[in-house]
Amino acid sequence: MASLPGGTWTLGDLTVTRFGYGAMQLAGPWVMGPPADHDGALAVLREAVSLGITHIDTSNAYGPEVTNLLIREALHPYPESLHIVTKVGATRDDKGGWPPARDPESLRRSVHENLENLGLERLDLVNLRLGNAQGPQPEPLAKPFETLLELQQQGLIRHLGVSNVTEEQVAEAQSLGTIVCVQNGYNLAHRQDDELIDRLAAEGIAYVPFFPLGGFSPLQSAALTKVSERLNATPIAVALAWLLRRSPNILLIPGTSSVAHLRENIAGAGLTLSEQDMAELNDIAPAGPSAG
Ligand SMILES: NC(=O)c1ccc[n+]([C@@H]2O[C@H](COP(=O)([O-])OP(=O)(O)OC[C@H]3O[C@@H](n4cnc5c(N)ncnc54)[C@H](OP(=O)(O)O)[C@@H]3O)[C@@H](O)[C@H]2O)c1
C-alpha cells in the first residue's frame, strides 16, 4: 500500500487509509444526475485507488444511483484492499430533496440497491444517516438501527456506523450494537463535535467529517489565509492537515471531481503544522469543551 498522509486506521477488522475519498459530488450539480464529464469521473476514482486510497465514501442517494454505478464501472472487480462505505436513511425526490427513508422496508430496499449497483455480495460498512440538511435532529434511532442490525446478522453488512447524529443518538446506537464510525459535518470552522471526537478516539471509533472543505460553501477565514500564506500552502491543504492532526481517529473523505485536485489534496494533507499554526487555526471557531 502506498504511504498516504495520516497512515491507516482500522474500522472493525478493515484497514483503511486515513486519507479517503468522498464520491458524492461526482453525481453532477445538486448531486442529481450524470457528471458533466463521465470519463473524468471514472479517471478520478481510478486515480484515487492507484494513489493508494482504500476508503471511498458513497450512497445510493447520490445521483440517485449515479455515483455507485460510476464506482462500479471504474473499479469493479475491486481490489481486496478497497473498502466502500455507503449510507442509508434518505432517498431523493424529483426536486433534488433528501426525504427520509428510514422505515424497515425502505432500509432493506436501500441496502439491496447498494449491493446491486456496487456489484457486491456484502457491504463493508453502512452508515445509518439521520437528521436533515440542517444537521442532526432529535429523532428515535432504535427502530431503523435494529433493521440494519438484522441485515448485518443476515450477512449483508459487515460493519455499521451512524451519520448526521447527536451524541445521544451515538450512545443509543452503541447500546444496541457495535459501531465503527460516526460521520458528521465538521471542519476547521464547525467544531460542534469536539467532545464527541475525543470520546470516540478513546473508544477506538473513527470520526469521519463530511464537508471537510466546507462542502458547497468553501471554507473561508482570515486566520486560515494567514497560516496558509505563511506556509506557502493552499487553505485546502491547511484545512486537511489540521483535521489529520486534530485527532488520530479522524478519517478524511474530501470530495473532488478533478484528478489534479485529488493529487493536490493528498500532497497538501501531508503538510506539517507547528504548535503556533495549530493555535491560530484552533482560534477560528469556538471549540467544544474538550477539544485537543
Ligand atoms: N453523511 C452525510 O450526510 C454527508 C453529507 C455530505 C457529504 N457527505 C460525504 O462527504 C464527502 C465530502 O463532502 P463534499 O465533497 O460535499 O465536500 P468537501 O469535501 O468539503 O468539498 C468538496 C468541494 O471542494 C472542492 N475541492 C476539492 N479539492 C479542491 C482543490 N484542491 N482545489 C479547489 N477546490 C477543491 C471540490 O471541487 P472540485 O470538484 O472542483 O475539486 C468540491 O466542490 C462527500 O463526497 C460525501 O461522500 C456525507
UniProtKB/TrEMBL annotation:
Pfam family, one: Aldo_ket_red
Oxidoreductase keyword on record: yes
Keyword Oxidoreductase found: yes
Entry keyword set: Oxidoreductase
Limits of the NADP-dependent oxidoreductase domain: 20-284
Record InterPro entries: AKR, Aldo-Keto_reductase, NAD(P)_OxRdtase_dom_sf, NADP_OxRdtase_dom
Gene3D superfamilies: NADP-dependent oxidoreductase domain
PANTHER family (alphabetical): AFLATOXIN B1 ALDEHYDE REDUCTASE, ALDO-KETO REDUCTASE YAKC [NADP(+)]
Name of the protein in its database record: Oxidoreductase
Originating species: Paractinoplanes deccanensis
Higher taxonomy: Bacteria, Bacillati, Actinomycetota, Actinomycetes, Micromonosporales
